[in-house]
Amino acid sequence: MGAFLAYILVVAAALCGYANSQLVPAIMTFGDSTVDVGNNDYVQTVFKANHPPYGQDFSNREPTGRFCNGKLATDITAENLGFTTYAPAYLSPQASGKNLLVGANFASAGSGYDDNTAALSHVIPLSQQLQYFKEYQSKLASVAGSEKASSIIKDALYLIGAGNSDFLQNYYINPFLNKHYTVDQYSSYLISIFSNFVKSLYGLGARRIGATSLAPTGCLPLARTIFGQHERGCVSSFNTDAQQFNKKINAAASQLQNQLPGLKIVIFDIFKPIYDLVANPKKYGFVEATKGCCGTGTVETTFVLCNQKSGTCSNASEYVFWDSVHPSQAANQVLADSLIISGISLIG
Ligand SMILES: *[C@@H]1O[C@H](CO)[C@@H](O)[C@H](O)[C@H]1NC(C)=O
């Protein structure tokens, strides 16, 4: 993190006056593998990252269920906001008692805005993540007391990372969808779910909400391998689709901001930073941006393919992607820096 940013955060922490100098009391997270910290370990699915080499660059080399060699962008963001522990995966045994005071993570790899996306992978649909959040609220009230619980709920940061799986693991490969709906129609459908989800969170007390845009999905190694046979670079049609979706989600967020009094909402643009990393890896100190570190780097992700037998590159810090879909911890560091810049208005 740059010195200037660190300075802003220190000043902001002092102004907010949290005893433990966290900028927000808690973080609640919803969505897919970009933000899941291990809920899928407790779900019957092959979309798990609870085995080596996932987590190999944590100091204890522990695979936690994160789809990364180390920290997710949202882990680094939590550290940047002054947290010394991460909010637990809601389905894990750690999600109890005082641990709930810093929030909870409801995300599930393979999930999306469209509940059918989650159904295809047998993971936790977004609608169920919301139900778990309601359950969390009553648990929090019994740990913290109802007054403190409401203030935590109101001041917490809510993060949503979803949408990429709806395209890569559903729309593009599901003839029932792509034969009957245009990309534009499907995007609008997803955005209507996003808007309703934000309204539900708001109705449950949330006031600070950040959601990530879509990534340049056409630049993910998996997309290049499976859909890019005739193209040398990124799959440009996928990137165009992602940019159209991103326009819509930004418009929806502005509308929600106007409709819901007291709501602060930000769309974190992850398209541009990931696109820049892929286009100019050397500028950011990376060596490889076209394939992931795990296995051949072209198709491997999840339990089935990125595993102890598939092997890894010698230094994941030189790779933009850890597996064929997910950024490495080193790339997540770059993303987290850009998240904190665009998210500063959420924590003021
Ligand atoms: C891995 O690569 C990073 C980035 O180039 C570098 O800073 C680090 O020293 C390398 N680590 C090893 C063990 O070579």
From TrEMBL:
SUPFAM superfamilies: SGNH hydrolase. Keywords: Signal. Residues 1-21 form the signal peptide. CDD domains: SGNH_plant_lipase_like. Belongs to the 'GDSL' lipolytic enzyme family. PANTHER family: GDSL ESTERASE/LIPASE EXL3, GDSL ESTERASE_LIPASE APG. This is GDSL esterase/lipase APG-like.
